[in-house]
Specification:
The complex is a heterodimer of chains A (215) and B (464). In chain A, strands 1-2 form a two-stranded antiparallel sheet. Chain A contains 8 helices and 3 strands; from the N terminus they run ααααββααβαα. Chain A is globular. The longest helix of chain A is centred in the middle third of the chain and has 21 residues, at 118-138. By secondary structure, chain A is mainly alpha-helical. The two termini of chain A are 26 Å apart. In chain A, helix 2 packs across helix 5 and helix 7 packs antiparallel against helix 8. Chain B is mostly helical. Helices cover 44% and strands 9% of the residues of chain B. In chain B, a hairpin with a 2-residue loop joins strand 2 (16-20) and strand 3 (23-28). Chain B starts with a strand and ends with a helix. The chains are: A mainly alpha (215), B mainly alpha (464). At the A-B interface, strand 1, strand 2, helix 5, helix 6 and strand 3 of A face strand 1, helix 1, strand 4, strand 5 and helix 2 of B. Strand 1 of chain A pairs antiparallel with strand 1 (3-4) of chain B, so a sheet runs across the interface.
């Protein structure tokens, strides 16, 4: 199986179990016109010395000249988003390989990190910041990664408590199993069509899904 | 080695071309994969994982899977996901194992994720007979049986020997010291190294476990010898000052290193504080059902057969009790005993005379029904004179709508750690007697260059 190729399959039946959790109200919030303040936040939340993308400008450059170029950046980005199309060279990335572990023998021992253009990252970040606000509604309690207001320790504490319970359970008819999964290369194998289908099923606005598709 | 690629207008039509030894190879047209480095990727990933979550929830609601309840009224837990770290719980029988296997296969096919079952681990509760264990491992195709594994980088099973469980922290600190000590760091470099690298190593584990004192002692000893050492591990310097004094704040003449046991209690107190302020999270609901079903964290007891996490968090309760304070709204959710609702966060302990009469009452039974004021008659009848006067002097503000617990002084989360750590070291009486002496104090308050400050601080430390 080629792991980078999409599998042609129909998963509509498997998606029936997802409840639409995004209300019209949330969609309105996601679709409100962009403001310059959002872009400003996005730019200044980046570390100025982070590696630059293929165009060679790092966040520090944009932060330093923000007063000069903010209007142009804001206008262009908004135009791209309303048109639903990025210029073809915006989304180019360099891929750097970060070593995993102490010995690098095969390609598995490297983690590919995409170095995006800062301009692209700004747009992506603005969208991500908006997405963040609705996440607590559409992500169930059992997931605590990346959702604002939830902490990794929450999950760890629940897991420890449950395992403690299992360890103490020496009699009775209620027998339980805990299964710890090993998902390999979880990020790199995500099927885009599937993600988009889930977004659609959750009730996100078509336009929003199109933006996600662009990124 | 770097690999560059060009192309990519939108997700649908990315094409990669790879530069191998200067020659362009490609194009490769993918249909999968999120880019690590794109700010949106993490969120798209958890949205995708929500697919697995809803498959499991659906099976649970149909009754095909049974989640685990740690006690009768606890919310049931069938799965815990943290990005790609998954824990699934179900009943140990053939049917449920088949259902789970189907769910995983479905998810795998749809999302493109590859779940490697042979590398996954299972753990059965102790009442599962060996026969059933083998059947389940066969159905799922799982090989290893989880022993004392780690989940999210934390030891998930704590046995009797805590020192052995947490010994890896000490090893990690030791490794870090060894990898640096040959490189002749300056005094200032060492300060930064201790403060932001070495002391940060145990912070994650300390936020839910109380580390054994012997372990903390030996870590502090290592840090102390690193601080006074001469660069090489073999050469030990003279320890001019013990760690206790070095860990005092700079304003008191120390170096401002962290007192690890105080820091540990502060972090644990933070977890307890979260049980009070965010009662609707999954973790808070489970702990409430298991350990304090009818009370709050502040009135809880350690209880029967507690986990080490709960034991640890309970040990830090005195810190939270020392700083928490109720602002009284209706009074219906504050019990009279053991809750800090009097002025300055004082509380009525359960060994006052007649405590068993008011055991189950909340403080609204001491208030007048028609307006928000104390029912003086009742208060004087029930309590002795000094407690009664304390109660009557406690302010009731009619604008406050609901009962809310707040942190004394500035209660924002950001400074909670600072305040907590401060409280803890005060209550552990680590305050230094020599705190306000000459140069030691000056070195902390005046705005010298860091190196100068350390130098004068070190001098002061040596002189005294």
């Amino acid at each position: 199986m080629n792991i980078f190729q999409q599998q042609d399959n129909d998963f509509s039946s498997k998606l029936d179990v997802i409840n639409p959790s995004i209300s019209d109200n949330d969609n309105d919030l996601l679709m409100t016109p962009f403001t310059k303040a959002e872009f400003c936040d996005a730019i200044f939340s980046m570390h100025p010395d982070k590696c630059s993308g293929p165009d060679g400008y790092n966040p520090g450059f944009y932060q330093h000249f923000w007063t000069l170029c903010s209007d142009d950046i804001f206008k262009e980005c908004c135009d791209w988003l309303t048109a639903g199309q990025f210029p073809s060279d915006l989304n180019i990335t360099n891929i750097a390989l970060i070593p995993k572990g102490s010995m690098q023998v095969s390609m598995k021992d490297w983690r590919p990190i995409a170095l995006c253009n800062v301009l692209y990252k700004v747009i992506s970040k603005v969208l991500a910041n908006r997405l963040k606000t609705v996440l607590p509604q559409c992500i169930s309690d059992n997931q605590s990664a990346f959702v604002p207001g939830r902490s990794i320790l929450d999950n760890a504490m629940v897991a420890i408590e449950v395992l403690h319970f299992m360890k103490a359970k020496t009699c009775g008819e209620d027998r339980y199993v805990a299964l710890k999964l090993d998902i390999s290369k979880a990020y790199d194998r995500m099927d885009w069509n599937y993600v988009m289908a889930v977004l659609y099923k959750m009730g996100f606005h078509d336009r929003w899904i199109h933006w996600m598709r662009m990124c | 080695m770097t690999v560059g690629y060009t192309g990519c207008v939108c997700v649908e039509s990315v094409d990669y071309s790879v530069l191998v030894n200067g020659e362009q190879v490609g194009p490769i047209i993918p249909g999968r994969g999120l880019r690590q480095g794109d700010p949106l990727s993490p969120y798209l990933f958890i949205i995708c994982a929500e697919g697995l979550s809803s498959l499991i929830r659906d099976a649970e609601s149909r009754g095909a899977l049974t989640g685990m309840k740690v006690c009768r009224h606890a919310p049931s837990v069938s799965h815990l996901l943290f990005a790609d770290d998954c824990f699934l719980f179900f009943k140990a029988n053939e049917d449920q194992a088949h259902v789970m296997k189907n769910i995983l296969a479905t998810y795998e096919l749809a999302s493109g994720q590859a779940i490697s079952l042979p590398k996954s681990e299972i753990y059965c509760s102790r009442n599962v007979p060996d026969g059933i264990k083998t059947i389940i491992t066969n159905i799922l195709g799982v090989q290893a049986v989880l022993g004392t594994g780690k989940y999210l980088g934390l030891p998930s099973m704590i046995g009797r020997d805590r020192k052995a469980t947490f010994a890896y922290i000490k090893d990690r600190v030791w490794q870090k010291i060894n990898s640096w000590s040959g490189k002749c760091l300056s005094k200032a470099g060492r300060e930064v190294m201790i403060k932001s690298v070495l002391q940060a190593i145990p912070a994650y584990v300390m936020s839910i476990f109380q580390l054994p004192h012997t372990l903390i002692d030996s870590i502090e000893k290592m840090l102390n010898s690193f601080w006074w050492g001469h660069g090489k591990t073999t050469q030990r310097g003279i320890h001019w000052m013990n760690w206790e004094k070095l860990s005092a704040p700079k304003i008191h003449g120390g170096m401002g290193f962290k007192d690890l046991s105080a820091f540990n209690l502060a972090l644990l107190g933070k977890q307890g504080w979260k049980f009070i302020t965010e009662p609707n999270t999954l973790v808070a609901r489970i702990f409430k059902a298991r350990y304090f079903p009818s009370g709050s964290y502040l009135t809880a007891t350690v209880g029967h057969n507690p986990s080490y996490v709960w034991r640890s968090i309970m040990r830090a309760r005195f810190v939270v009790c020392g700083g928490a304070w109720w602002t009284i709204g209706s009074g219906a959710s504050i019990s009279i005993l053991n809750e800090p609702w009097l002025t300055n966060g004082e509380f009525i302990s359960s060994d006052v005379p007649g405590a068993h009469f008011i055991h189950n009452f909340t403080i609204n039974s001491l208030m007048n029904l028609y307006d928000k004021s104390w029912n003086k008659q009742v208060v004087r009848q029930v309590f002795s004179a000094d407690i009664a006067s304390k109660i009557l002097h406690t302010l009731l503000i009619s604008q406050v709508g609901e009962d809310r617990i707040v942190w004394k002084g500035n209660g924002t989360d950001a400074i909670l750690y600072a305040v907590l750590t401060d409280c803890v070291s005060q209550s552990l009486s680590i305050r230094l007697t020599y705190g306000a002496r000459g140069t030691g104090r000056g070195s902390g308050t005046l705005k010298f260059h860091r190196r100068l400050r350390i130098y004068s601080g070190a001098c002061a430390v040596v002189v005294y």
